Amino acid sequence: MTLADDVFVVVDAEPATVGLAPDGGVADPLVGEAVEPGDEHVPHERDVAEDVDDRVLRREVNGCRAARRSRVAHRIELLAAAYERLMRRVPHGCLRRDVRVDGGAIAREECGVDRLHRGPDGFLVCVHGLIVRTTDGWPCAYACPMEEVTFLFTDIEGSTGLIDRLGDRYVSVLERERALVAESVRAAGGRVVDARGDEVFAVFSSPRAGIDSAIASQRAIATEPWPVPVRVRMGLHTGRAAVSGEGYVGLAVHHAARVAQAAHGGEIIASESTVVALDGDAFAAHDLGEFDLRGIPCATRLFRVVAPDLQGTFPRPNARPSRPTALRVVLADDSVLLREGIAVLLEQSGIEVVGQAGTATDLLDLIESTLPDIAIVDIRMPPTKTDEGIRAAATIRSRHHRTSVLLLSSHVDVENALLLFGSEVSGLGYLLKDRVADVDEFVAAVHRVARGGTALDGSIVAELQTGVWPDSAQEVLLAVAADAAVIGD
Fold first, then answer.
1. Stretch 301-330: mean pLDDT, rounded?
2. CATH number of the domain located at residue range(s) 147-321 in this protein
3. Which of 251, 248, 277, 258 is nearest to 399 (CA)?
4. What are phi and psi of 439, to 5 degrees?
5. 7, 435, 458, 459: least buried by Cβ within 10 Å?
6. What is the pLDDT of residue 242?
7. Where in the chain is the domain with CATH 3.40.50.2300?
8. What angle do CA 224, 229, 235 make, to 5 degrees?
9. Best CA proximity match to 372, nearest among 297, 276, 305, 454
């Protein structure tokens, strides 16, 4: 279990501001509990999403943030790999160990924080996070788990008009609507995270449970004898978010809220991520197309959930249909010079580079926040410079099916090509870094892979023809080459 796969890292180069607890200990700003003196750490870093039209400025901002975090993330990843227990449900208590990392520095787990987190099923679990500091003066960091869950947002349509019509009676209507939704959420195995105003925010461990809850809620609302018609719009989205006490933090939460805002009263809309995550689980849905949702960096394909006894026809979603935009790319390579060179070539070809990363850890974080069309990734990245790119590609494809991956390698590597294309082919590419020199061919390969196609370096095909590799390897990669754009053959 590695840091890149299972945790969300918050770092800051500035020292923490620490207060005193009533018993003389140090007040932990993240947990709100007293910890031992000296166990202070930095507060949660909050990134504020802003609409920035200047592509170069946005790329530089993302690049600076990634660079600032990469050095610390490198050390934290080694430490997490040594402990292999970041996501365990552990007994309450703190452990202290020293782990020697690169450069001879000592990374110490200053404080192991056992937080109680309420999961989607409503049960409290003990989640272990790390507060880490290195003895060579590197800043400390806090690591906390991320979960892939399905979020449901509900919202009463025309609530302001209902208040005008009902006056004081609106309170009882609101309470009853909340109770109906909460009952359906609990029946499906979910949990209500928050209820503010006329909105309800719930979480589920599976997309099927979220859809079942939304359908049950709409049926209950439709049959309730209201004093005036009450219509509730609902939206579902599946994604990863960092746990925060009994709640969740992350772009996926905002994404779910925007999906709900696109719906009409009585309608259930689900994002493509929820529909795809059902993995063949039968239910009826109508494809509404792609839409631009406010604050979400890429277009979102929306689906209307259809069920018996519920209204089936609605106006088009309350969102702007997606318009053609420039291809959005994330670059990942530990060589800043190479990244910047590729970025210039791509932007001169009309492709938008939305961020850069120097490690696999930073790459996955950047993918979560920018949702690009394609990630161009070095096959060997820190800390081990072995298979980080391959593992990152597999993680990206499993979490973000709309993000394609193009791997770049310094030399011919048949084994890694086999790993890359072992389970799927579409939306993947493998090229030598030398191919970047032929700008037109390289850009064409980027577009092909981003559209769901495949690109393979011709040197791989030539290597297979040497007779060194077994028939099984030739069979796999030659089948890939038959349907791929073979570059440099």
1. 94
2. 3.30.70.1230
3. 277
4. -60, -45
5. 458
6. 84
7. 328-487
8. 80
9. 297
The second-level CATH assignment, the architecture, of 328-487 is 3-Layer(aba) Sandwich (3.40)
Domain boundaries for CATH 3.30.70.1230 within the chain: 147-321
Residue 27 pairs with which residues in a beta bridge? 19, 34
**CA 192 to chain centroid:** 22
Q: Are 391 and 449 in contact (CB under 8 A)?
A: no
AA letter at 143: A
- Provide CB contacts within 8 A for 386, sequence distance 6+: 380
Q: Say which residues have a Cβ less than 8 Å from residue 102's Cβ, sequence separation at least 6.
A: 74, 75, 78, 383
The mean per-residue pLDDT over the stretch 50-63 comes to 43
CA 416 → CA 115, 146, 213, 338, distances in Å? 39, 28, 43, 21
**DSSP bridge partners of 202:** 152, 192
Phi–psi pair at 385, nearest 5 degrees = 55, 45
Q: Cβ distance 155 to 233 under 8 Å?
A: yes
pLDDT of residue 80 exceeding 60, the answer is no
Q: CA 340 to CA 53: how far, in whole Å?
A: 20
Instruction: Please tell me whether the overall predicted TM-score, pTM, comes out greater than 0.85 for this model.
Output: no
Kindly state the average pLDDT of the residues 344-355.
Answer: 95
Per-residue pLDDT at 117 = 56
Q: Distance between alpha carbon 236 and the CA centroid of its chain, in Å?
A: 15
Count CB atoms within 10 A of the CB of residue 174: 19
**Closest alpha carbon to 238 in 198, 281, 199:** 281
Query: Which among 200, 316, 202 is positioned nearest to 263, based on CA atoms?
Result: 316
Confidence of residue 468 (pLDDT cuts 50, 70, 90): confident
Query: Which DSSP helix (H) or strand (E) runs through 6?
Result: helix 3-6
Q: Among 15, 1, 46, 4, which Cα is nearest to 388's?
A: 4
Find tokens 């032929």 and name the residue: 438
Q: Which amino acid is at 449?
A: V
Q: Which of 73, 106, 49 is closest to 295 using CA atoms? A: 49
- Give the best-scoring range by mean pLDDT among 41-50, 261-270, 357-366: 261-270
Over the stretch 219-259, which tens digit does the pLDDT of each residue have?
999 999 999 999 999 999 999 988 877 789 899 999 999 99
Over residues 161-167, the mean pLDDT reads 94
AA identity, residue 445: A
Q: What is the arithmetic mean of pLDDT over 99-116?
A: 41
What are the pLDDT digits (tens) for 367-382? Answer: 998 999 999 999 998 8
Six token digits for residue 288:
């509404």
C-alpha–C-alpha distance, residues 207 and 204, integer Å: 7
